[in-house]
Amino acid sequence: MLLVADYIKYLQYEKRCSKHTLVAYKKDLDQFIQYMNDVVGDFNVKKVTSKHIRGWVMSLMDEGINPRSVGRKISTLKSFFRYLMREDVVTNNPAQLVNTPKVAKKLPFYVREASLNQLLDLGVFPNDFTGVRDKLIISMLYGTGIRLAELKTLTVNHVDLNAYLIKVEGKRQKERIIPFPKEVKSHIEEYVKLRTEINDECEFLFLTSKGKPVYDKLIYRVVNKYLSMVTTIKKKSPHVLRHSFATHLLNNGADLNAVKELLGHANLSATQIYTHTTFEKLKQVYKQAHPRS
What we know:
Blueprint: H1 2-13, H2 19-39, H3 50-62, H4 67-86, H5 113-121, H6 129-144, H7 148-152, E1 159-160, E2 165-169, E3 175-179, H8 182-198, H9 216-227, H10 238-251, H11 256-263, H12 268-289
Antiparallel strand pairs: 1-2, 2-3
Helix pairs in contact: 1-2, 6-8, 6-10, 10-12, 11-12
């Protein structure tokens, strides 16, 4: 559908959304259009009502789609119709009248400080290129809290070894400067020496053993492999190291606004979820220490 294609281009070039966001929005809209074709017989954006959208939401819930995913799909429609209003294609936003399903807040998974210290300090990583690279991947994800996409696109020129800083490009191409632990400097220097022998021309810092830029599945495998050595939590993804970064900073007294800036969150509410995690720790200490607890 031409309007959907135009909307995706708008998200890509004007809103500067990530590829993952573009794919998700396109999938949501395609699903809704298919639903309308099945139920109404023909999809016409000017004839869509809030009743149609509520019907779609009910069908998604009946299929067992979780409330968080349903909420995202509703947000997609709201954004799509806002775009159509801007383009004078429609005069109202029917999705605006549809309530988002309530989602139970889940505390983020994170790895204990002692476990990560054990992983990084006990020499479990091989001394070859792959082992040195993998240790740097873990150290950088945990030491800076960057996202997987930001790690992949980190370039050699964006690392300032003298100042212990990296420059990353976050969501919607927003750049931010993040400090990294001093011990990581030696990891980077060791890795770069080995990296030079494989490919000294590629701009991206992290490479495969064949000299190509690393990819999502490789990073997931690395993180899962090494976290499995020190933790039994169910989720062992790169984002868990980001959660661990934020949780440990707050546990050790970091200011919430400072953590927000380091994570690259647009709103403080996105960072506040980690205060729930630290509060769980406080409750545990209370139960262990208070004589009347």
